[in-house]
Amino acid sequence: MTYFRKILQFAVPYKKYAVLNIVCNIFYAIFSTLSFIALIPVIQVLFDKTKRVSEKPLWDGLAGIKDYAVNHFNYYVTQKVNEDEVAALVFICGIVVLLFFLKNMFGYLSSFFLTFLRNGVLRDVRDAMYKKIIALPVAYFSEKKKGDTISRITADVNEVQTSFLSILELIVREPLTILFTIIAMLMMSAKLTLFVFVFLPVSGFIISLIGKQLKKQSNLAQEENGHFLSIVEETLSSLKIIKGFNAEDKFYKKFQESTNRLNGILNSLVNRQNMASPTSEFLGIFVIVIILWFGGNMVLIEGSLDAATFIAFLGLAYNILTPAKQISKASYSVKKGNAAAERILAVLETPISIKDQPDAIDKKEFENEISIENINFSYEEEKVLKNFSIKVPKGKTVALVGQSGSGKSTIANLITRFYDVQDGSIKLDGTDIRNIKKASLRNLLGLVTQDSILFNDTIRNNVALGKDNATDEEIIDALKVANAWEFVKELPNKLDTNIGDSGNKLSGGQKQRLSIARAVLKNPPVMILDEATSALDTESEKLVQKALENMMKNRTSVIIAHRLSTIQDADNIVVMQRGEIVEQGKHQELLEKKGTYHKLVEMQSFA
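Structure tokens predicted for Antibiotic ABC transporter ATP-binding protein (607 residues):
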């Protein structure tokens, strides 16, 4: 229950609904008990004339309040019976109907108020999950399956919501119903009530045996649910490759294996859960039969209990069965919910390794230079950068070149603080970027990645992602700089054209030009281009390269390049190999050295 208690903290803003729910549940439990107690005077007065009261009872203090209330009611009914037996019957039936109406009305109101609380908690947990997901560093998701994360924010949160409803009934309505019923039973016959309670611990023990493995199986089901969602996500994002390599059957088999495992887990889980209701009902009826035998002796042989009270006692005993059964089902549901809450809290309580320092500054301008000093960096055990140092003066363009795996893209990830450096430092105008607020640091940076990351939205919303309230004129100007307006203006809805999932309605070159337009509109002082032209065809590359050159005039730029033809005018070209700098200088200088850069140029020229 530890995890569930933490989830219940989300209910604090909705405590007024919880209070109203509790109040309604108290009245529900009271009227549920009274509706059975009302049967006693009915039977006594109508069918046993010796119980009729002809004299109005007198108040004898609090000690005799029970007898006073019963006799007063019997006296009133007796008067009605003496006047008109049919009218008395209608009056008594009206009381029973009223009590059941009030019971059900408060039952509805308790559920009504609980709905606001339950759905509010559902929304707030989802919001907290999403907020945490976008706050977590990129490194966290490199180790996680997307499907598992999706499962936690959907299926697990739904499971917690369902269990949340169950636990509120578990701790309020049903226990109160049982409590008031037991009090009424004790007032009728303490001996018979105590006899009944000899059997309840045995029933509880049998029911608890059923649910011991429920949390474990529920956890397995939720993990497998995340696994098959990951397969679906991979399939949808890689459909061309799957079809191109005729791998449909292979992926179907992989998916079928996952759903078969989930089917086996759920069969065991649901069957165990379904066993709770019939088991508790059978045990309850067993207790009722015991009451019939023992109570029957008290009525027929001992004469210590009258028939009317015994009939009402049986009704009350049966009245315990429904809430007891609900508690049994709720306890199973809570165990499942606790497993789901554990998976949710695993995300919510994950420490954020990349966060603002308490004294971090809000930097508005870029003034002098970016300084990368003696950096060492590893992904797990693989060392990617070794004692790496460069300076990027304001207004200059620095290009990083080298073979794949040489650490070029890692530099971009470190400057933008997607990852934090492990040794050394990166400074902006002499201030370590770890001492600058992330939001203000990223406001100074524009990013165009190798993969054109676009969203299933309009061209307008994709381009204006980094600038709120951008005008159409500003967006069109940015598209023109990126040489994208020429194709956008030909689209049916121009800026309002939806580009599909990941921009798949556009060609690779068009997608990349929109990515560049997005960075142009943001207009940051520092631009980071991570192989920004690698996805373009030759014609598009020339168009975009010209646009990039115009955009980078008097702007600080860090270019990670695979095509060396795109960085010939860079102020400094840094040649990397296995995380280290092997050469640096201008294009012509490096060619004259006949070193690594010269070999790379020759290889690309030959290609």
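The chain has a mean pLDDT of 75.
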